Amino acid sequence: MIINHPLLGPRDAAEFYVMGDADLINRPDPDAEGAAEAFYEYAYLRDNPAGEHRELWYHEQGDRSWLVVTRSTLTHEIMNVEMARDVALAKGRGQ
Amino acid sequence: MRYSALKIFTEGLTGNKGWKPVWREPEPKKEYDVIIVGGGGHGLATAYYLSNKFGVKNVAVLEKGWIGSGNVGRNTTIIRSNYMLPGNEPFYELSMKLWEGLEQDFNYNAMVSQRGILNLYHTDPQRDAYVRRGNAMLMAGADAVLLDQDQLREECPFLDFDNARFPIKGGLAQRRGGTVRHDAVAWGYARGADAKGVDIIQNCEVTGFDIENGVCRGVETSKGSIKAKKIAVCVAGSSSRVMAKAGMRLPIESHVLQAFVSEGLKPVIPGVITFGAGHFYVSQSDKGGLVFGGDIDGYNTYAQRGNLPVVEDVCEGGMAIMPMIGRARLLRSWGGIMDMSMDGSPFIDKTHIEGLHFNGGWCYGGFKATPASGYCYAHLLAKGEPHEVATEMRLDRFERGAMIDEKGVGSQPNLH
Amino acid sequence: MTQSNRIAGGLVDRSKQLSFTFNNKSMTGYEGDTLASALLANGQRLVGRSFKYHRPRGIFSAGSEEPNAMVHLRRGAAQEPNTRATVAELFNGLEATSQNHRGSLEFDLMSVTDLASPFLSAGFYYKTFMWPKKFWEKLYEPAIRASAGLGRLSMQEDPDSYDKGFLHCDMLIIGAGPAGLMAALTAGRAGARVILADEDHLMGGRLNAETLSVDDQEGSAWAAAAAAELDAMPNVRLMTRTSVYGAYDHGVYGALERMTDHVPTSGGKPRQVLWRIYTKRAILTAGATERSIAFPMNDRPGVMLAGSVRTYVNRYGVAPGKKVAVFTNNDDGWRTATDLHAAGVSIAAVIDSREITPLAAIPGALILMGASVASTSGYLGLKSIATSSGVKIETDCLAVSGGWSPNVHLTCHQRGRPTWRDDIGAFVPGGDLPIGMHVAGAGNGSLALASSLKEGANVSASVASDLGFAATAAFPSAEDQSTDITPFWHVEGKGRAWIDLQNDVTVKDVKQSQAEGFRSVEHLKRYTTLGMATDQGKTSNVLGLAIMAEATGKSIPETGTTIFRPPYSPVPIGALAGRARGKDFRPFRLTPSHKWAETHGADFVEAGAWLRAQWFRKGSEKGWRDSVDREVEATRGSVGICDVTTLGKIDIQGRDAAAFLNKVYANGFAKLAVGKVRYGLMMREDGIVMDDGTTARLRENHFIMTTTTANAGPVFRHMEFARQCLWPGMDVHLISTTDGWAQFAVAGPNARNLLSKIVDMDISNEAFPFMACAETTVCGGTPARLFRISFSGELAFEIAVPARYGDAMMTKLMEAGEEFDATPYGTEALGVMRIEKGHAAGNELTGQTTANNLGLGKMVSKKKDSIGNKLSERPEMNREDDLRLVGFKPVDTSKPLAAGAHFVDNGKEAVTKNDLGWMTSVAYSPELGHSIGLGFLKKGDQRKGDKLRAVDLLRGGEVKVEVVSPHMIDPEGERLRA
Q1: Which residues contact C462 (CB under 8 A, 6 or more apart)?
Q2: CATH number, domain at A68?
Q3: Chain B residue closest to A40 (CA)?
Q4: How deeply is A36 buried, as exposed, middle or buried, from its count of CB atoms within 10 A (0-12, 13-18, 19+)?
Q5: Is B139 helix (H, G, I), strand (E, B) or coil?
Q6: ipTM metric
Q7: Could you tell me the residue range of the domain that residue B199 belongs to?
Q8: What integer is the mean pLDDT of C85-104?
Q9: Distance from A3 to chain C by nearest Cα, in Å?
Q10: Which of B139, B325, B334 sits opposite C573 (nearest CB)?
Q11: C673-684 mean pLDDT
Q12: Which other chains touch chain B, taking contact as 3+ CB pairs less than 8 Å apart?
């Protein structure tokens, strides 16, 4: 597979480490009500969709960026690649 | 029809014209006591044990394609009970014992071949971990032997002892481990279940569950709706998709595991051998092909195919321990979808929806578990409570913090 | 032997005669021959035995689809099994032997199985061999295994080397037949970067095997000219002897180039190269493969594919028989008759299953229309055939054509399915091709020459235009030969009719499979083994499923195909591994003091990719224990030095560095003073301990973290995740500096005395107390970092210098330490001392361990949020009967302890339900004078002083142990604060 890194251009997937669902960015608020349940679901439950999947890839043999790759789990086609940090910031995690 | 050498002889004399279908091709009834969703190894084994051991005979197995078309038809055929943790080891040892009597039990030769499995170790800490594991196996009534390098040199002289990057120091062997002809397992269970009246319905896809007020009363299928008192899902490779129809999210991700077979060769290796410093395991089929594999590709996928880096990684592992296979040719590769659970261990459990049961999350280890999985699932369905060796395989274990994490890599499925 | 079947013509070089042996018989051939053509030239029809019945087998085809003619090629360590004679290029001195027989090839003792064939029908083995139970592994299976398999491995290390490489192009064209050549010419002329690959050593494909003309030249001459034109283009790479074997994601193709298989020895060059070709687009021009017709006893040596028969005549100048008969259901079969006749080979008959007007008059040949072959004779080689109407024909070679199947394989590698075309009686590529793949020519069902050339040019022009190249399709002149077909699959009659020649699957097997309910094509394949031979069904699949379709009353498209999987043709495992074998399996990481250690008696041990000194053998020391005990005693007695560079080092800087550390460590770091070091416990989000180590605060916004050797990579990745994804707003930056700094532990009562000779600062206990750190210099100016931390439990420091000074630093430390008898120590001594001190390491941090298990539960700060904090609170991870890390000593102190032993209470049986935990690490403590251990024990913290069984069933040992504190030496830590 080839991942089109937003900064570096097309890179071989073998340079990356893949961690799965990009929902892992959405770490729950530990102080919110029901945090224990929220953390359990965050750490353990997955949509595991057949089709479009947003997932985390880490450019370990490269610039060490974490990327959010939107890829089909049926065809492996990659629709979009974003910097995970940008995604996290856009979700308001910068505060 | 009972199979025997005599039967083959008499059929052979009369032109092999008397063989009957191994299973019927019935239309679904309106209602069953138990509907098993998924005609793979585990589903068929569940049907077999329900009908043959627990007296539940009004059973249907619904299969969206052809029976055995999932991972039981697409694996590297290894059986073993060399687990470490108390939540696992007794279960896999029960499976091993069931394998040992299986063929006589269901009158079908699945070629259970206990030629042994050998896990190589390359460092002292690895040896210590194997000793811990070997002792756990022995304490659970399984067998295990620790071999040092001298013993290994005798048993496997073809291993690269003298020029290896990671020296082979010894191995943990389970002599009762081995291989089984995988397709025959599905066929044998199907035949045995069919004979007791279980309806095996192929090309029948479950499209939904009939759930009302938290109770599941049946399924919607491509052949109409069918009622049942209990619905038992075991659809490896499709667990999340199917359970989503019941509104459930699972602690599962689906990944591809590639496997490989070489061209046929005269006998090369004795049993199953696994590399301890890389991703490679190998056995040799009765037909002579080296059957081997390694790690999952690592990315989520439902496509039953993988990519080159893993192919190369696996072959590198092979050449690292047995460089005599260099001139053997890889004939075919394939990929199966593994429902990787969050701790690497499976589930055999009721769900929060009454009547709906779930069996899955077998990662890449489901084949060896087939008999015990079927037996324990049948036990759960027939008696309403888990079998004593499957008490830990619960869906709520992550909420409680009772993980069964053999590899110790945590809630990241692609590392298990 | 003389080349009795060699005739005029062909593309072999008759000026270059080559000698070779087959089963030790000397023969000759010419350059340009394959082993198969040379064997046929020498009249050698019998070349092998089938898999199941050990039936005599001859050469069936002229390409990589060959199911029969498999040989051992070469001798000794280089012997390769299952080599297709049809693709093995002849070289001088080639040695080939037949395989899969016991006794000679002519009198194979295993052929008795053939007599028993009525009892060995499809799936017979599933129905027997079950009694007595024990006999399967002892008797039946070994017998089956010995007779199964095909060729034999040498069992010696593969003597050849293999390379790997990457190639990039705009267009990869797979197959250099007429369509492929046209595609390459079109794209090449337009300026696209093109790779044209073909498995043959000669470009041209069927053009080299036919008597068809292109642009008024012989096809082979036109192909050679086209190849020459392409070769002259700088933007085109021609790859002969290269099989593109797999289509992977995103335009990545696997290809195997055979470099030295056609010469006597590799001469030290790589035997083969495995290429990963990255292409924007691919055009599959892979041609088609002919298939047979199933008729009774159609497996004899001499029964061949019709197209292959004319390949031997036209390309190799070899007549596969003296008197050849043709059996066909299509027009193409007639070309074999007319070509052979033109070449002077006698044609005995042409038998066409269709009731049509004969396509040609062939003098001397019997022409039978609407006829079929119903039986054959000749055990070791065909002698005669008889038609359904009883006409007996003497012939030594029957050329059979059942039609051509496009090579759709690569179009299906990403789960695409082919579609059926009735007009050509074959599957063609379906609509769902791999992204970026196009198909042209015979492989797309355009079987005739002119159409194929045209399609190759057109598809290529359109693809090149898509990519922005101004391409125009120009076609050479050629004619479309007639390829009409009326599908005809099998002939009823007495005797077995083979479908899969290698695996001995016959029409009866397919019918029995149907009768027993194995009706899906996948069931058919798995039950009968149809298509599972080394040709993966290239010559048999379509025939088999057509017969199944007939038996079930379904159409062929309804019946469907099995799945095409990579590789297209088999690839040696050695080639897929490449250079990564032996010591080169993985790279070595060497510590800065490696060379020093090598020259000072070190034995090295693998620690992940690192090699670390395990101990330093000195003088007359016999066993490793002598060295390790000495190193421990010397360190605890005076001073020891250990290279600890392998520990992960992460440089953390930024305004929020402290706050960030507070997130990734379970214990608090915000208040760590500048110039101080703190032990940190890191958890995964699931509340399990991930790693531990020390982190030093060099400046307000600058920390240095150390990790365990094994977790250096994973911890860094984890922290980058936390930084980029969880707390992207924090001002913090991470760099891995593991390889940047050489670091040495200097431990023991004389550590300060030694270091003060080198370090350019005051390191007295007052100025530089336990857990202090500083940026400083050594030896009068070399930058250094100094940490007063201790893994050994002694007064100890770790000194770090830039890695380039590592070797010099080691020498300097030893020089400065000479007066204290400073002793280098390795990982074993390190291990002994950490066990004596009760520090957890890899054996304890298994990824299953909680902070509670380590007795560090109180370190998990509840005053702040940190990774893993929440989930560590789950009830089952906080059980009252949790495992706790404790120390152990043998009750009889002369006994050694065993790591991996499990704990059981006295009087309790060693079974799972009584399992109380296990011993994680053991060592001999020279100071205590006995074996000691660490281990996890249920309620261990409440069991100090208890005596238990430590049971090692695996090695047959059992030791009574006493539970002690894990801090077995200097529990108050007085030494390290000294």
Answers
A1: none
A2: 3.30.2270.10
A3: B399
A4: middle
A5: helix
A6: 0.99
A7: 5-81+83-107+182-250+343-415
A8: 96
A9: 9
A10: B325
A11: 98
A12: A, C
* Interfacial C residues in 516-545 facing B (CB < 8 Å): 516-518, 520, 522-523, 526-527, 529, 532-534, 536
pLDDT tens-digit series, residues B340-353:
999 999 999 999 99
pLDDT at site C431: 83
Residues of A in contact with B252 (CB under 8 A): 46, 48
Domains C290-404+483-559 and C593-646+740-833 share a fold: no
Query: What's the token pair of residue B315?
Result: 């072959």
Q: What 3-state DSSP class applies to B4?
A: coil
CATH number assigned to the domain covering C593-646+740-833: 3.30.1360.120
B101 and B26, same domain (yes or no)? yes
Instruction: Read off the tokens for B329.
Output: 């040719």
Residues of A in contact with B250 (CB under 8 A): 45-46, 48
C273 beta partners: C163, C257
Residue A94 has what pLDDT? 85
At residue C795, does pLDDT exceed 60? Answer: yes
Looking at the complex, report in whole angstroms how far the Cα of residue C876 sits from the nearest Cα belonging to chain A.
14
B contacts of C918 (beta carbons < 8 Å): 132, 135-136
Interface contact flag, C901 B135, Cβ < 8 Å: yes
CB contact under 8 A, C141 and B286: yes
Q: Are C571 and C565 in contact (CB under 8 A)?
A: no
Task: List A residues 2-41 in contact with B (Cβ-Cβ < 8 A).
Answer: 13-14, 18-21, 37, 40-41
Grade residue C1 by pLDDT with cuts at 50, 70 and 90.
low
- CB proximity A45 to C under 8 Å: no
Give the model confidence (pLDDT) of C808-856 as tens digits: 999 999 999 999 999 999 999 999 999 999 999 999 999 999 999 999 9
Which are the contacts of C622, defined by CB distance < 8 A and separation ≥ 6?
none
Q: Does A72 touch chain C (CB under 8 A)?
A: no
What pLDDT, on the 0 to 100 scale, is given for residue C131? 82
pLDDT tens for C507-530 read 999 999 999 999 999 999 999 999
- Tell me if B384 sits within 8 A of B233, measured CB to CB: no
Q: How does pLDDT run across B183-233, given as a tens digit for each residue?
A: 999 999 999 999 999 999 999 999 999 999 999 999 999 999 999 999 999
Instruction: Count how many domains chain B has.
Output: 2
- Domain C162-288+406-466 matching CATH 3.90.1640.30: the answer reads no
CATH no., domain C879-978: 2.40.30.110
Beta-carbon separation of C278 and A85 below 8 A? no
The residue segments making up the domain with residue A22 are: 2-90
Q: For residue range C219-272, list pLDDT tens digits in order.
A: 999 999 999 999 999 999 999 999 999 999 999 999 999 999 999 999 989 999
Contact A18 B299 (CB under 8 A): yes
Query: What is the chain B residue with the closest CA to C141?
Result: B286
Which residues of chain C from 16 to 75 reach within 8 Å of chain B, CB to CB? Answer: 51
Closest chain C residue to the Cα of B70, Cα to Cα = C522
- For C390-422, give the DSSP string: --EEE-SEEEEE--EEE--GGGGTTS---EEET
Contacts of B413 in chain A (CB under 8 A): 20, 46
Say what the pTM is.
0.97
CATH number of B219's domain = 3.50.50.60
Look at residue C751 and tell me whether its pLDDT is greater than 70. Answer: yes
> Which residues, at least 6 apart from B138, have a Cβ–Cβ distance to it below 8 Å?
B144, C910, C953, C954
Q: Which CATH number fits domain C648-736: 1.20.140.10, 3.10.20.600, 1.10.3210.10, 3.30.70.1400?
A: 3.30.70.1400
Q: What is the pLDDT of residues C115-159, one digit of tens each?
A: 888 899 899 999 988 888 888 888 888 888 888 889 999 999 999
How far is CA C111 from each of CA B76, B319, C69, rounded to the nearest angstrom?
31, 35, 17
A44 is a domain residue: yes
Same domain, B94 and B220: yes
CA of A27: which chain C residue's CA is closest?
A: C726
Please state the domain count of chain A.
1
C288-290 and C404-406 beta bridge pairing:
antiparallel
Tracing tokens 């990662």 back to the chain, one arrives at B363
Decide if pLDDT at C957 tops 70: yes
